[in-house]
Amino acid sequence: MRRMHEGHREIIGTFSLTTKPHFPAPQMAQRVTLRKRQPYNTTSSRRRIVKTPGGKLVYHHLKKLPTQPKCGDCGIGLPGVPALRPRQYATISKRQKTVCRAYGGSRCGDCVKSRCVHVLPQNVRYLKHSNSILRAFLVEEAKIVKKVIKSQQKAGGRK
Ligand SMILES: [Zn+2]
């Protein structure tokens, strides 16, 4: 191909200025054939035309775009969990696919906080916007206190 072009240039060079300039016929655009057996031009079958080092045009068949796992309540992408194609999740370890928290790989942190508020006893609800760890600790404390009071009452009843 390249040689032919050079040949044309040489011929053009030999023409005198009085003759009409000779333009080589425009070359047909190279046809590009699919490399996969899926002929449908759908939104998910995406391709890119790439020129190889040899000057040929070939298709690069692109993979589907990954989507991030979403929070089941508010729908935002879960922070800390990568967006991958399904088979790629099998190649990474579990700690990369979840967050070390209750509802870790399923709900976002804010939603977990608001969920906790519904479960909480009335006296702890003022902690709505504070640290969830602190609140969880207080809930556990409240449970222990209740137990202690119960056992004391029982003990008192026996006496
Ligand atoms: Zn959420």
Automatic annotation (TrEMBL):
Highest taxon above the source species: Eukaryota
Source organism of this protein record: Rhizopogon vinicolor AM-OR11-026
Record bears the keyword Ribonucleoprotein: yes
One GO location term (cellular component): ribonucleoprotein complex
UniProt cross-references to InterPro entries, sorted A to Z: Ribosomal_eL34 (IPR008195), Ribosomal_eL34_C_sf (IPR038562), Ribosomal_eL34_CS (IPR018065)
One annotated GO biological process: translation
One Pfam family of this chain: Ribosomal_L34e
GO MF annotation, one: structural constituent of ribosome
Keyword Ribonucleoprotein: yes
Protein name per the record: Ribosomal protein L34e
